[in-house]
Each structure stands twice: as structure tokens, then as C-alpha cells.
Amino acid sequence: MADQHAPRATSTLTLTDDRLAAELLTLRDCLRWAASEFHLAGLFHGHGSDSPWDEAVALTLGALHLPWNVDPAVLDARLLPMERSRIVALVRSRIVHRRPLPYLLGEAWFAGLPFDVDERVLIPRSPIAELVESGFDAWFPEEPPHRVLDLCAGSGCIGIATALHLPTSEVDLADISQEALAVARQNISRHDVGDRVRAVASDLFDALPGRYDLIVSNPPYVDARDLAIMPAEFRHEPALALGSGADGLDITRRILREAREHLTERGVLIVEVGNSDHHLEAAFPEVPFLWLDFERGGQGVFALTADELDAHAASFA
Length: 317
Fold this sequence. Notes:
Blueprint: H1 17-23, H2 27-41, H3 52-63, H4 81-96, H5 101-105, E1 107-110, E2 113-116, H6 128-133, E3 147-151, H7 157-165, E4 170-175, H8 178-190, E5 197-201, E6 212-217, H9 224-229, H10 250-258, E7 263-272, H11 277-283, E8 290-291, E9 301-305, H12 306-311, H13 313-316
Helix pairs in contact: 1-4, 2-3, 2-4, 3-4
């Protein structure tokens, strides 16, 4: 049983950054201190980490540009004053301003690949990464899709990762936000896929001629209730990319109505709606949504074939 009379731990963030940096000599010191501060602060963890310890590891290694598999001997290396100061400043910003760590570092990982991110785009966290890594082989077991559309692309992580995992596929990244597309273009350049991937300004399908073998989308899907009670960390993400009406399905309804005209005869539509999945089933009880399972967790991703969209076109009208 815990000692009820033991003193409660208190944050050291009342000290100045210079004082803290002077006390934290090694990477191990910084890691232990950051994890303790994150625990005390009661942060929300859901943008690439799921615990104070994981977040502390990601922050300290990211601040020093060290890989995840760094030699453990580095933990006891003495850091330079400027390195310690950078870690302290990042920890303070993470706690005081509740900025998600990927925005602080300017980078997030998706499907095993790094992507530039900032407040112009959502932080990648979709379970669709597992489908990308498998090459969408459940639907394309023999030949990969020739044309792929990443709809509501944001940073472009889904489409660019798809292009890298499927080197014969051509990919369009479509988004209504010019600011998001600017980040997507940074990532196209970062991964040197400009010969097969292009970013297109489009209100869903409006500026997209032609048909695709695969349309994959992580559109806005947060319903009004969830949007109102989301943790402070989500307030740093673009509202345009989160909310989608009272039930979270305003954009998804448009996708369901319009997607068939942009799919090939054997095309597939894959869309993430998160925990608005129950709203979708209630809205379209007769539609046979295939809800996908993921080994690493995640929910609310469905698949429909072109034939299924044809069969239920009246439901989406």
C-alpha cells in the first residue's frame, strides 16, 4: 500500500530553463526528467506515443536527431549545453502549450516513413498504414493498382507511402486546403516521388478527371460532440481537417455519392470514419460496409467495391 504521508512529487518547471539545463547532464537525466514531468502534467498521448515514457523517449531522441535504435551507451553521454537547453525548451512547450510532439519536432512517422508536419496538417496516425504496408494486397493480390487517389490528403502521407510501397503506381494527392497541399509538396520532394505523385487542389472530386483503381481517404469525421470535448492537444490541428457536421459524416456522405464516377470497374473505395462508424451504419443500414481489422489497433475503416457502390447508389443519392 502506498504511504499516504509520503510527499507528492512536484514539477520542476518552476525553475528557469537555464537552471534546469544545468542540472540535466546526460541523455539519461533528460529522459528521466521529461518522463516525470509528462506524468505530472497529465498530458494527452495520442499523436504517435501512448505513455509519458514513450513521449519522453521520442522527444529526447528527436531533439538530438538520434534514431530509435541508438546504442544504449549514448544514454550516459554528457550533452552539450545547447542540447540540454533544446530538450528543456521542448518539454516546457509540450506541457505549457499542449502542442503535440510531432509539431514541436516538425516530423511524424507513418508506415515506417518520416513526413514533414506542422499546424497546417493533421498529424498522421491512421491505421490505414497497415494497408499501405501490405500493398493493399487483399484487393490487388496479383497486380497493384495503377492509379491511386489519396483524397483529403493533408500531409500526403497515405498517398506518398503508397507510392513508395507500390513503385509502379501513380498517385494523386487531393485536398481543398492550399496550406495542406504546400506541406504535401514538401513531402513529395522529401521522398523524391514527384515523377509519380502530384498534389491537386480539389474540393473532393471536383478537379479530378479520370478514374482510379483505388481511392483511399482519411477525411474529416469527428462529430460535433466529440469535437467539443477533445483534449487541448487537438486544438493545434486544423479544424477543417477534424470536424464534419453533427454526426461527423458530412464529407463521407459526399464521398459515397460521388466516388463511383471516379472508380474503374474493379475499383475499391477505402475510407476512415473512426468512431463515427456507428453513425454511418445507422445512416446506411442496408449497405454492406466491410469493416477492417488491424493488428496494431484502430477502428472505423471500411471498404466498398465499385460493384457495391453501384448496387447501393440509391442509398447514397
